[in-house]
């Protein structure tokens, strides 16, 4: 069995297609991510990295090309199927944590599991395990407003991994943190990816962090090249 968790082949995406101001953001992107591999995605602002992440994570549909998740062609599936696959197999982390403020850290990690049909006791056990991995066992009962920025982002990492996804996609996950906290949070991210044997694609402007990943790809003129 192949260890390729996510494959993108010939991905093309144009905004305002057919209009004078049409922009072809992605012009034939090819990428493979393997289990346990952490890949940095770097690109200038506006180059299309968020679009690429959304297509890879089944939040958007490419105009052309193929998205394969764990050996299954998923890019052209219907909305309901894509939603189910996204909930089960893809974890997302954004620059801002987007935690639900009225719930504790533990509850923020439990809720997506309940939505996937997991028993509450099992969901809480999974949440406790993930919080322990990122050094936050003692902070699970706190609401987001009672957590530091770095703690909130680590809880967001745990939430993204709550349903044990195959692929982790992150868009500038440490971009709003100070350097020391960014380093701490990134170490937690690496631990979660390695321990869970996920395939991780991390968009970042931080070249120091990018250099610590397994490889770096750069989005230029709508295509990916090795950096």
User: Which structural class fits the helix and strand makeup?
Assistant: alpha/beta
Give the amount of beta strand, in percent.
Answer: 25-35%
Q: Counting H and I runs of at least 4 residues, what is the number of helices?
A: 7
Shape: globular
Biggest β-sheet: strands ordered side by side in the sheet:
6-7-8-3-9-10
Average of the residue pLDDT scores = 86
> What is the ordering of alpha helices and beta strands?
EEEHEEHEHHHEHEHEE
Distance between the termini: 29 Å
How would you describe the overall organization of this protein?
The protein is α/β, with parallel strands linked by helices. Helix content is 35%, strand content 27%. The protein has seven helices and ten strands. Strands 6-7-8-3-9-10 form a six-stranded mixed β-sheet. A four-stranded antiparallel β-sheet has the order 2-1-4-5, with helices on one face. Helix 3 packs parallel to helix 5 (149-160). The chain is globular. It starts with a strand and ends with a strand. The model has no long low-confidence stretch (mean pLDDT 86).
């Amino acid at each position: 069995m192949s260890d390729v968790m996510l494959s993108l082949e010939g991905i093309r995406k144009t905004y305002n297609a057919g209009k004078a101001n049409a922009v072809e953001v992605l012009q034939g992107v090819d990428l493979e991510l393997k289990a346990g591999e952490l890949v940095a995605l770097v690109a200038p602002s506006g180059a299309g990295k968020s679009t690429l992440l959304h297509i890879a994570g089944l939040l958007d549909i490419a105009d052309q090309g193929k998205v394969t998740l764990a050996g299954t062609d998923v890019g052209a599936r219907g909305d309901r199927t894509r939603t189910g696959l996204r909930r089960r197999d893809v974890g997302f982390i954004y620059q801002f944590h987007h935690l639900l403020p009225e719930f504790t850290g533990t509850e923020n990690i439990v809720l997506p599991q309940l939505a996937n049909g997991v028993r509450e006791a099992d969901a809480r056990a999974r949440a406790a395990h993930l919080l322990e991995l990122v050094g936050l066992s003692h902070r699970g009962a706190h609401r987001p407003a009672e957590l530091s920025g770095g703690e909130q982002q680590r809880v967001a990492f745990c939430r993204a991994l709550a349903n044990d996804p195959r692929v982790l996609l992150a868009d500038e996950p440490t971009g709003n943190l100070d350097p020391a906290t960014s380093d701490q949070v990134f170490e937690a991210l690496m631990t979660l990816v390695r321990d869970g044997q996920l395939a991780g694609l991390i968009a970042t402007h931080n070249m120091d962090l990018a250099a610590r990943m397994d490889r770096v790809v750069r989005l230029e003129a709508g295509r990916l090249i090795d950096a």
